[in-house]
Amino acid sequence: MDEPIGSLVGWGRVFLVVGVISLVLWFMLSVGFLLSSFVVASVTAFILGERDIKLCVGLPLLIAAIITFGAQYGLIIPLP
């Protein structure tokens, strides 16, 4: 078993997603949870191969908004 697990392109995508998540976590307090979660979801979908603009932008925005407002007003959880 001398070969690495997975292709080099696959590992590149993994490290890119981890980098994006780390960068967004670094700036979350300044830009807020809604924008941060939207950026992470959109960039991750794009990196993993989604090219439909509705699914790459619209769906992450909808889900981020539902989670943000549900947590803040429904569950009364303070978010950054």
What percent of residues are in strands? under 5%
Characterize the largest beta sheet: strand count, sense, and whether it forms a barrel: none
Helix content: over 70%
| Helix-strand pattern | HHH
Poorly predicted runs are none
Indicate the structural class: mainly alpha
- Taking Cα atoms only, what radius of gyration do you get, to the nearest Å? 15 Å
Mean pLDDT: 86
Overall, the morphology is: elongated
Spatial separation of the terminal alpha carbons: 46 Å
Number of strands: 0
Number of helices: 3
Q: What's the short version?
A:
This protein is mainly α and 80 residues long.
What do these coordinates show?
- By secondary structure, this protein is mostly helical.
- The chain has a domain at 28-80.
- The protein is 76% helix and 0% strand.
- It is built from three helices and no strands.
- The termini are far apart.
- 8% of the residues are buried.
- The mean pLDDT is 86.
List descriptors.
single chain; 80 residues; mainly alpha; 3 helices; elongated; transmembrane helix; membrane; Tripartite tricarboxylate transporter TctB family protein
